[in-house]
Design a protein that fits this description.
This protein is mainly α and 274 residues long. Helix content is 73%, strand content 0%.
Length: 274
Amino acid sequence: MKALLRNPTTLAGAVMCLIVLAAALLAPWISPYDPLDQNIIDRLQPPGGDYLFGTDIYGRDVLSRILWGARISLLVSVASIGVAILVGGTIGMVAGYVGGRIDLFIMQVMDIMLSFPSLILGLIVVALLGPDLINLIIAIALTAIAPFARIARAPVLSLKERAFIEAGRALGFSHARVVFVHILPNILSEILVMGSLWMATAVRTEASLSFIGLGVKPPTPTWGGMMRDGFEAILDAPWLSIFPGLAILLLVLGLNMVGDGLRDATDPKLSGTS
C-alpha cells in the first residue's frame, strides 16, 4: 500500500477508475435524461445548452448514455476477467501441480487458444452464441483463460518442490488443500496484477465487438455501440464518437496505470525502484 501511495501514476489511474465507477453507480441519479428517450426534434444537437455532450441521431442525450454505458463496460470487464481468473487460474495450478502428460496436454490446449487473437476468438464465440450480455462475458472470458492458466502454472512448478509443500504432503494433506490453501496464496498477487491489466483488454474487446454489432443489443447504451452509431455521422456530428471514445480511453488508461503500479508494488525486483 505504501508503494502504491508513493506512485503518482498509480494514484492518477485509481482516480480515473473511481470516476468511471462513480459514474456507473450514480447513473440513475446524475444522468440528466433517460438514456432511451428519443426526441427527434432535438436530434444532432451540438454539445452545450440543455445537452452538455449533445444528442445523437435519435435525439437521445449522449451524456446520459455514456453514464449508463459505463455500467455495461464495468460489468463485462469485471465478470469476464473474474471468470477467466477462476477457470484459468484453477487449470494452471492443477496442470503445474500434477505435471506429466496431463500438464503437457493442458498446456497444448492453452497454446491452441493463444494462437487466436483475442478479438477474433471473441468474435467467433459471440457469432456462434449470438449477441447478448451473457454471451459477451463468456466470449471475453474464453479469450483470457489461457493467459491466466499460464501465469498460474509457472510459479506452481517451483512452489510444489518447496519444503513447506513437501511437509504438507508428509502430514497427509489432500492435494486440494495443498493447491488451494498453501500454493494459491503465494501466487495470488501475480494473478490479481494480471487481472487488473486484462480488465483494460476486456473493455477494449467489449467496445470492439459492440462497434461491429456483436455486443449488447440496442437500444441498451454501450460505448462501442455509441461509437458505431456516431461513425455514420462522423463528419456532421463528431461528438457522437469523440465522447464515448474518450470514456473508453479514460477507463482503459486508468486500469493500465493501476495494473502497472500493482505490478511494481508486488514485484520484489521492482518495488525498490517504484
